[in-house]
Amino acid sequence: MKIRKSFVTNSSSSCYVCHFCGESASGWDIGIREAGMYMCENEHVLCKEHYGEISEEKIYDYYRKYLIDEIYKCYIVDDDLINNTREIKRRISTTTNFFKMLKEMEKSYYGAQDLDDYVEEYDNVKEFVEENFDFSYNVPSVFCPVCNFEKILDYEGFQYLLKITGHTEKTLLEKIKKEFKSHDEFMKFNRKT
Predict the structure, then answer these.
(1) Is the pTM of this model over 0.70?
(2) Separation CA 49–CA 21 (nearest Å)
(3) Phi and psi, residue 160, nearest 5°
(4) What region does 53 belong to: left with phi over 0, alpha with psi -120 to 50, or beta?
(5) Which helix (H) or strand (E) holds 38?
(6) In this predicted structure, what is the pLDDT of residue 122?
(7) Radius of gyration, CA atoms only, the chain
């Protein structure tokens, strides 16, 4: 029986793989941000190179609208709310927090007019949304090149081609076996333009 005499932690290893190019990053307690990747809300993981540059202006516009929509939702009154003081207090607190976040975000975008006003200090909007919305793990689909059909992932393209040709994976393999004598011959055919 082995007896562990050294310090034991709950560390775990993580690995992230870009669904587009296959680049991977792994390590102990590594997060997707440290791996240099993003994951959209539809779970497409891409390295920052394949996400491309997401402009500060687009991020600001998206999250400004999001925060305003969330504030607005807090003011919607329905029958369940009228006699529910706990929910009213929760909505007031939520609204106050969203207003503070909106103010902080606008200062990070436009630049600080009065540094004493900052609750938190952020160098830019990207830093603000990373800290407040965990941006790297939950990129809105409007920023994802896969969700916007700027890039296609191999497996999604393969599924689409099977569907439009009426094949299943099995029938496609049978067709390939009939047409080609070897894998090399098949690959030569695929390389032709």
Answers:
(1) no
(2) 10
(3) -65, -45
(4) beta
(5) strand 37-39
(6) 66
(7) 25
Amino acid at 63: Y
- Distance between CA atoms of residues 117 and 94, nearest Å: 20
Task: With both helix axes pointing from N to C terminus, report the angle between 125-133 and 56-74 in degrees, rounded to the nearest 10.
Answer: 40
- If DSSP codes are grouped into helix, strand and coil, which group holds residue 135? helix
Closest CA to 98 of 136, 118, 142, 68: 68
State the sign of the Cα–Cα–Cα–Cα dihedral 61, 46, 19, 154: positive
How many whole angstroms separate alpha carbon 153 and alpha carbon 159? 10
Reported as a single tens digit per residue, the pLDDT across 143-193 is 999 999 999 988 899 999 999 999 999 999 999 999 999 999 999 998 885
Place of tokens 């990053």: 25
Q: Using CA atoms, how far apart are residues 91 and 74, in angstroms rounded to an integer? A: 5
Residue with structure tokens 């029958």?
Answer: 79
Nearest to residue 130, comparing CAs of 83, 180, 75, 63?
63
